[in-house]
């Protein structure tokens, strides 16, 4: 089953692409709630390149690495990658009139309910939108 999350960011696609892919920026927006953060991020944005983002509870009770390998990169337009557990993710960046429609579609995992997965990924996307629009 595939899950889709989406937002419209009030920023040009070039800026959205940069903020989405720059490891220093990723550490500032990649979390679903204030209780979580991403203290470390590495990103080799090219087909065959890989990424790792460490997501951690701020209270130190839990952390995990979110890892994957890029299968397609079309600058300012599209990213596809495979998460380390084999699930596929596709992200489209659609720029129009100074805004960017950002859409992520990913394979659901079998542990958590679909609604929880969709809610978590949407929360991260919403956090990104807030960061990108904050005039960084």
Automatic annotation (TrEMBL):
Q: Which Gene3D superfamilies match?
A: 3.30.530.20
Limits of the Activator of Hsp90 ATPase homologue 1/2-like C-terminal domain: 10-133
Looking up Pfam families in the UniProt record yields: AHSA1
Q: Which family does it belong to?
A: Belongs to the AHA1 family.
Q: Quote the protein name from its UniProt record.
A: Polyketide cyclase
